[in-house]
Design goal:
The chain contains 4 helices and no strands. The longest helix is centred in the N-terminal third of the chain and has 30 residues. It has one domain. It is an all-alpha fold.
């Protein structure tokens, strides 16, 4: 699991940097300041949780509960898709109907961090 999620986290980080550059250099002149802010929020959370995935993979190597860390990583990936993905589409396409999906991604992030904390607190001996 560790190598797989380090790779997934690294790819998600690469994607977040590419999307951030795309937003700053290509989108900003075309979508306006408010939409750019929405897009940047998506990139910000995308990047933070890409790092979280990598950290969780390393925590598994330190003896933390790997099942809980697996769920943390799954929830981080789901959160990136739901939270950041909905913000990207809202900013680019103006799809306001995605608004109710964004909080589901936020909840995924929060439960993921809870699972991370429980995994480290209840580490294997």
């Amino acid at each position: 699991m560790q190598r797989k999620y380090v790779a997934i986290g690294a790819i998600l980080m690469l994607l977040s940097v590419a999307l951030g550059a795309f937003g700053a250099h290509v989108l900003e002149p075309n979508i306006g300041e408010k939409a750019t802010g929405t897009f940047e929020t998506g990139v910000h959370y995308h990047m933070i949780h890409g790092i979280g995935i990598i950290l969780a993979a390393f925590a598994a190597g330190l003896g933390a509960d790997s099942r809980k860390l697996l769920w943390a990583n799954r929830l981080f990936v789901l959160g990136i898709i739901l939270f950041s993905g909905s913000l990207y589409l809202l900013a680019i396409a103006g799809w306001k109907w995605l608004g109710p999906i964004t909080p589901l991604g936020g909840v995924s992030f929060m439960i993921g961090w809870l699972m991370f904390a429980l995994a480290v607190k209840g580490r294997n001996k």
